[in-house]
Amino acid sequence: MRCFFPRTSRTPWILALLLLAVAGCSEPPQKEIDQAQAAVDLARTSGAETYAAEEFTAATAGIEKARAAVDQRDYRQALSHAIDARQRAQNAVRQAGDGKAKAKTAVEATVTAVSTQLNQLEARLNAAETARVPAKELRTPRAVLADARKGLQEARTEIGAENYARAVEILTPVRKNLDDAIRDVENIPQRAPRTTRKR
């Protein structure tokens, strides 16, 4: 059995719903702003400032807009900004994870390349000594070799701490210095190895 209500009886219900909707925006959306802030804090600890900078910046800006809207008593706009900021921060967390993985792979490849350069320079220095190259001419390349070993160790420490950007900063000049030292040793005129005369 279907019930029909006069139009006048439905009016109070419509007004009540409208009042509830208005009441929903009559207070600052503090809960949503707090959730957005927590998401931004998580994104920061996840490395989003480095590996998801665009989304992270948008999230922090969204929180500022939400708070500014609260100050202007525009709670509906504040809610919108807070929800958007939370979503951006969550996106930043995911992007940071992907970015970190790619950065780790790249810096590990750089470590391998530097290790190869170290071996190449050491082999060339040993060959130069065998060819009786004066020790003073090998002093600078040997210093580069020592510095490179130290830099490689420092980079590995940073990688262990997941500071991949810092590891790259350390290894970039190390690679260049090793390249220069290898080239310098190769360009040193080498004498023929000393041979023993037969009596």
Describe the structure concisely.
The protein is mostly helical. It is built from 7 helices and no strands. The N terminus is likely disordered.
Summarize this structure as a short list of keywords or feature phrases.
199 residues; mainly alpha; Butyryl-CoA Dehydrogenase, subunit A, domain 3; 2 domains; rod-shaped
Descriptive account of the structure:
The protein is rod-shaped, with a radius of gyration of 33 Å. It has helices spanning 7-24, 30-45, 48-51, 53-71, 75-130, 135-160, 164-186. It has two domains: 28-98; 101-186, Butyryl-CoA Dehydrogenase, subunit A, domain 3, CATH 1.20.140. It is 81% helix and 0% strand. It is mostly helical and 199 residues long.
Q: Tell me, briefly, the overall form.
A: rod-shaped
Largest sheet: none
Which sequence of SSEs, written as H and E, runs from N to C? HHHHHHH
What's the β-strand tally?
A: 0
Fraction of helical residues: over 70%
User: What is the name of the CATH architecture of the largest domain?
Assistant: Up-down Bundle
Residue stretches low in confidence (pLDDT < 50, at least 5 long) are: 1-23
How widely separated are the two ends? Answer: 129 Å
Quote the CATH topology of the largest domain.
Answer: Butyryl-CoA Dehydrogenase, subunit A, domain 3
Mean pLDDT: 86
- Assembly type: single chain
Give the helix/strand class: mainly alpha
Under CATH at level 1, the class of the largest domain stands as Mainly Alpha
